[in-house]
Amino acid sequence: MSDYTRIMSSINRRELLQLTATLPLAAASATATAAEAATSAARSTGAFDELPVGAVRPEGWLRTQLRKQVDGVTSHLQHLYAPFTSKAWLADEPDPKGSWWPWEVRGYWCDGTLRCGLLLDNQTLIDEASRLIKYTFSNPASDGYLGPTALRAAGDANRWPHAVFFRAAMAWHDSTGDKTIVEGLRRHYLESKFNYIADRATTNVEAMLWTYERTGDERLLTLAEDSWARSQKFLAMSEGSFGLTEQSWLSPGPCGEVHGVTYAELTKIPALLYRATREQRYLSAAIGAQRKIFEHHLLPGGVPSTSEILSTTTARDAHEVCNAIDYPWTWGYLLGATGDGMYGDRIERVTFNGLPGSIRKDFKALQYYSSPNQFICTGHSDHVSSMKGTPLATIKEWRYLQRMSYRPSPGHSVVCCPGNLSRALPNYISRMWMADRRGKGLAATLYGPSRVTHRVGATPTEVEVHADTAYPYADSILFRLKTQREVEFPLHLRVPGWCKAPRISINDADIPLPQIRDGFVTLRRVWRSGDSVRLQLPMTMTTSKWPQDGIAIERGPLVYAYPIEQQWTKVDDERSSPEFPAWDLTPTGAWNYALLPESDQNKPVFQQQSMTGDPWSEPPASITVNARRVRDWQLVTTRVNDEDATMTPRLPDPALLTNSVTGASQPLKLVPYASTELRVTVFPRLKVEPLSS
Length: 693
Ligand SMILES: [Zn+2]
What we know:
Elements: H1 3-8, H2 13-20, H3 32-42, E1 49-50, E2 56-58, H4 60-71, H5 77-80, H6 101-120, H7 123-138, H8 149-154, H9 160-176, H10 179-191, H11 205-215, H12 218-237, H13 246-249, H14 260-267, H15 269-277, H16 280-296, E3 306-307, E4 309-310, E5 319-320, H17 323-338, H18 342-354, E6 369-370, H19 383-387, H20 416-430, E7 433-436, E8 441-444, E9 450-456, E10 461-468, E11 476-483, E12 487-494, E13 503-506, E14 509-511, E15 520-527, E16 532-536, E17 541-546, E18 550-555, E19 558-563, E20 566-571, E21 582-587, E22 593-595, E23 605-608, E24 621-630, E25 636-640, E26 643-647, H21 654-657, E27 661-672, E28 679-680, E29 683-684
The chain binds zinc ion.
């Protein structure tokens, strides 16, 4: 049952009618000229602003991965299987099944494909994606409504796919200046009357405020604030509110029983309202919502534990791949609104660990659920349903058991993740640099090889900054500036929270470390072409603790895992092709290891190898630890619908561990989580090493 359905069933009819009375809009008094004049006043009041897609370009290993993503699912989904092969957003298609999924997933794909095209100057991708935008914005209904008749007729909660699709239109406008987008969105929201209070329909506030920032039309701000207020009232009327009210976000403890994607999408809205209004209560709510996630729900790879609903953080918990895209998108808004570099740390952790750990390294197959520990990933290995207590005998749809396997279409009938994956790297890359509008400067917000072009200084002057680095596989980033003439501006550099001894040099001369404020240092000076800044971020090995006495090994922004020897086997799947096969992945080597207690004689050893062109396939770093096998820690097999299902087990009982180890101590070579598919990330650890084997 969706959150929306549960909430609807708990609200009486009269209250609902009051809530859904159509919002009276202010008189249409704003002329285009007045709106233009108000635009600058309405534009962002946050700490940092995003740059148009294309202002930041990927270099080095990031460019390699983006190209692989394009050559993988991104440029093939539309030919591979339904509903990607449909004409959703490209014709007024009726939906054969009565759901909004085709428009949601094609919206994700369109957004990601367009951004990939703009970042790589790939006209084919730009044309493929922009034709959906051009069709939709060229065919508004008489009242300005954009999109399919089917969604319009379906009523409340069915404008969620619009919020997804309009992100593509917004990126298209900001990169091309296509004026039909802003005017189309203004008419859609102001003239096509609708209630944005139900479930994810409220996420349309994102596009309302984007349009407000570009038009200054106060009616859009009124609609956005009113939609949010009524949505909150609507949620609060339901019993328990399922963790989606501002009040619940300010309370201590874990999140309620709430859908992971819905939480990610809704909790960004108050941050956007704060940017538009400067009302602190909005920002407090958005920050509180993320704090609950950070304190209670993050898995080692940095993605919230989301087996549909937000969950616990054991080694067998999992994240839906969508949440490796949706949470960083939300945290990017928080980063812009607060100027707090901590959100950059969170985004990097997902992008360097949990995200790539969910995909085949050719980007041609991915999981729906991905776990820190996964020892087998087949069409019959979904341990998440098992551990969550889902009565397996009631699982009627056979595809449900495939949710942990690597397929071009993992999961069940919902195929959100493959479409959404197209957005992952473009979103990261575009937010590596942000504008400091008030200071007329630049902020380096996320790291990796990149270059940015932006106008800075009191007399706007274009500068290009290259970030030369193998980060996160190296700890040094060299920023090189190019400019036609000297210009004074502040350059903000993020200092990750895990780094205890950062160092900075300018033009090869060390400087005293400036004060770190909200995770950033600021270098304000007159910059000249050829100037360089080197940021050194020394990384140290650390151990993180997880439930059931589990531990994981980390170094800087990277989590390390043991890559289990594995075998890929092609399997039949209706949503696959010879070029994009479905896979079963089974272990061919041992994985049942416990780490020895750490001592002066037994410490993890880090080894740096030469940087590779494709670090997600060929990891350039490793950490060696010592371990012993654990007897009786084996895969678990159960019967599901008259078939055997073999699954990853939970960690062994810590109380019995010492007496369960066997064999001699042996070294294990761990590699970055990103480079693994079958893996052990969270290990049992012996408190004392038994003398006998
Ligand atoms: Zn998904």
